[in-house]
Specification:
The protein has helices spanning 4-8, 112-123, 142-157, 190-199, 201-209, 224-230; strands at 28-31, 34-37, 60-61, 65-66, 87-88, 91-92, 98-103, 129-135, 162-165, 180-183, 213-217, 237-241, 246-249, 264-265, 271-274, 281-284, 289-296. With 297 residues, it is α/β, with parallel strands linked by helices. Helix 2 (112-123) crosses helix 3 and helix 4 (190-199) packs parallel to helix 6. The longest helix has 16 residues, at 142-157.
């Protein structure tokens, strides 16, 4: 399905067509078990490889002749790998866990511990080269986006991973996949943020059901938490600022906490959240929750 209409309500300028599936050559899109030229590719669309050998009936060339119906490394399209190792009827078998993370840092300033927290969140996708869509609010501060990008690079590097941005201005056809959606810090009115989240609830639920990870970032006075609450991702509300407070890791066994120093300093732009369900908190300032993680099987 096209997610453009729903996610546009979150002030995104693109859409997700699918979060699973393989990749075609540049200028081509997947259609069923084959790649075809993109409708808007024009004369720039590269032709199919001229040296690709002919495959037998029911097989497709993906560097070798494979059966897209059952091959777990090319399930439904070339390069679509099933984490379960099982492919049936061109679709991966086995549910992938989706993840919802909310972090009370806007990353205007950060040290290694906060960066590692963000990197761990992105690494929940399981990918080594994580494909990330950065979703900004209207009139977002470019400096904040740049700071989050830098923190994401540092945090993922600590886990041995890299990342690449998927432009939200693209319409993300089937030859692209999104591993992680990062909701950048926003300060739009709380009612507007909640309504935007409610409008995108079905699209975000589908993304999570397909194994995607949604990371919300917030700071003092921010409303990302309201967007996530409106979308039904978390039942949490804004808490008190925690800038300058020591932050304790309270769930060291959680994947979000791996390698995160405890305690660590809540730098400028740190906030807490209230009303968090038991077992969801990963880091706290002693009174409020600064980071939380929910797995969606």
């Amino acid at each position: 399905m096209r997610w453009l209409a729903a996610l546009a309500a979150v002030a995104l300028t693109g859409c997700f067509d699918s979060v699973v599936g393989g990749e075609c050559r540049p200028g081509w899109v997947a259609e069923g078990s084959a790649c075809r030229p993109a409708a808007d590719a024009g004369d720039d669309a590269p032709g199919p490889p001229t040296d690709a050998p002919a495959c037998g009936a029911g097989a497709t060339w993906c560097g070798a002749c494979v059966d897209l119906v059952s091959d777990p490394d090319h399930c439904g399209a070339c390069g679509a790998v099933c984490g379960s190792g099982l492919c049936s009827s061109g679709a991966c078998v086995g549910a992938a866990a989706g993840h919802v993370v909310l972090i009370g840092h806007d990353y205007r300033r950060y040290h290694g511990a906060a960066a590692r927290l963000l990197g761990n969140a992105a690494a929940l996708s399981g990918a080594l080269d994580v494909r990330v869509a950065l979703a900004a609010a209207p009139a977002a501060d470019p400096a904040t986006t740049a700071a989050v990008s830098q923190a994401l690079t540092a945090g993922l590097a600590a886990t041995g991973r890299t990342w690449r941005a998927v432009p939200m201005g693209d319409a993300l056809p089937r030859d692209r996949v999104v591993d992680v959606l990062v909701l950048l810090p926003r300060t739009t009115p709380a009612m507007d943020a909640f309504a935007a989240g409610a409008a995108a609830q079905a699209a975000l639920a589908e993304f999570l059901a397909a194994g995607g990870t949604v990371i919300g970032l917030d700071g003092p006075g921010g409303t990302t938490v309201e967007l996530m609450r409106g979308a039904g991702l978390l039942d949490a509300t804004a808490g008190a600022p925690a800038t300058g407070h020591p932050i304790d890791v309270v769930a060291p066994g959680d994947a979000l906490a791996v390698g995160v120093a405890s305690p660590y300093l809540g730098e400028l732009g740190t906030t807490t959240f209230a009303g968090v369900a038991p077992g969801v908190a990963v880091a706290m300032d002693g009174a409020g929750v600064v980071a939380m993680h929910v797995a969606r099987p």
